[in-house]
Design goal:
Belongs to the IspG family. By secondary structure, the protein is α/β, with parallel strands linked by helices. The protein has 13 helices and 17 strands. The chain is globular.
């Protein structure tokens, strides 16, 4: 019988990243060992340069490192250079990706300024063209990418599979002694669509270091299965995303469940959380969720995150919940300024705890923590800085005082960023 106490403990953390060919998208490197990149997509009418530039700026300032826009009409293609001009006037420098379906070959040909301004083209092999025109229209887009030195994401999608590929695979499957089930055939069609299209792009002359692949589905288990398979069959950089993830908690949960498994296995070079916004809700929510997913997994650091207890019968007051929300909101609002001024501030850890049970302990583990009084506890809130009790706050201004302590700590602790 072996002595389990002598076994080597497992190392916590994600697996080694899957090796991939690096692809430069504007100023951003995707794959090749670079940190996992956060991207998002606008939902404005691209024909409206003002609203589209405004939303791109909002997404970029929230932390989106690449922003994709729909380019679906001649007017939208003509608007792209004007969008770029507006962003330059706003001081926003973020790579813009053009999302093309059906008529991308025509738009890139008719609007060379659009083809030049975009940092990357995204095409779907399932609808880049149909019948005899498919190959020529695909080649036309790839040739434009070669002409202008742009990378291309070849993004196959469950909802728009190449039906010719599906029919071929179904015929092949029928000849097998033990045919695959329909789901396996569909996954194979998705993967083959992406891989065959990438091979064709290379034959045309697009370098391997300008190709990113994605194979999107809307089911968690299907996405995991598709990308596990795809990852073993190529070394292209991979874009991860659960397509049509949904709204609110459902979309967040489903996306996190799928992407966390793949990221934990070292698969994925760039991600998007495809959330359906609440009516009137901010598009930046998908950026925040993507950042928090990567940060809570220990893959990136974007902004200080607040550890806070969920509350229980010891904490019937909502004050600690309000304070946690205030602190997290304050940090996110200050990060654009802090990111410019201070090095490493994104690694700051904070704790807002509601009672004496875990409050002091969690607060000591954070750079700055506060343990608020629970029911029946003395009306005082000890503040811990770098593991040591620094002061005790009392009265009606605890929130303002704690935020002030936080700002002072950041100014003292983190070196001013050098130019």
């Amino acid at each position: 019988m072996s002595d389990s106490s002598s076994q080597q403990p497992r190392t916590a953390g994600p697996a080694t990243r899957r090796p991939s060919v690096g692809v430069r998208v504007g100023k951003i490197m995707v794959g090749g060992g670079a940190p996992v990149v956060v991207q998002s997509m606008t939902n404005t009418d691209t024909e409206d340069p003002a609203s589209t530039a405004k939303q791109i700026a909002e997404l970029a300032r929230a932390g989106s490192e690449v922003v994709r826009i729909t380019v679906n009409t001649p007017a939208a293609a003509a608007a792209v250079p004007r969008i770029a001009e507006r962003l330059a006037m706003m001081g926003v420098d973020v790579p813009i990706v053009g999302d093309f379906h059906y008529n991308g070959h025509q738009l890139l040909e008719a609007e060379p300024a659009c083809a030049e301004v975009l940092a990357k083209y995204r095409i779907n092999p399932g609808n880049v063209g149909f019948g005899k025109k498919k190959d020529s229209q695909f080649a036309s887009i790839i040739e434009k990418a070669i002409q202008y030195g742009k990378p291309v994401r070849i993004g196959a999608n469950w909802g728009s599979l190449d039906q010719g590929m599906v029919a071929t695979l179904m015929d092949e499957n029928a000849q097998r002694p033990q045919p695959w089930d329909a789901g396996v055939v569909a996954r194979e069609a998705l993967i083959r669509s992406a891989l065959d299209s990438a091979a064709r792009a290379e034959q045309i002359g697009l370098p391997r270091d300008r190709i990113i692949l994605s194979c999107k589905v809307s089911g968690v288990q299907e996405l995991i299965a598709v990308y596990r398979d795809l990852a073993t069959r190529c070394d292209y950089a991979l874009h991860l995303g659960l397509t049509e993830a949904g709204m609110g908690s459902k979309g967040i949960t489903a996306s996190a469940a799928a992407l966390a498994v793949l990221l934990q296995e070292g698969i994925g070079d760039t991600i998007r959380i495809s959330l359906t916004p609440e009516p009137g809700g901010s598009r930046t929510q998908e950026v925040i969720v993507a950042q928090e997913l990567l940060q809570t997994m220990g893959l990136r650091a974007f902004t200080p995150l607040v550890t806070a207890c969920p509350g229980c019968g010891r904490t019937t007051s909502e004050f600690f919940q309000e304070l946690a929300k205030t602190v997290q909101g304050h940090v996110r609002a200050k990060m654009p300024e802090w990111r410019v001024m201070y090095d490493g501030v994104e690694n700051l850890t904070l704790a807002v705890m509601g009672c004496v049970v875990n409050g002091p302990g969690e607060s000591k583990h954070a750079n700055i923590g506060i343990s608020l009084p629970g029911n029946g506890e003395a009306p005082s809130a000890p503040v811990f800085i770098d593991g040591e009790k620094a002061m005790t706050l009392r009265g009606d201004r605890i929130a303002e005082e704690f935020v002030g302590i936080l700002d002072d700590y950041v100014a003292r602790k983190y070196a001013t960023r050098t130019a």
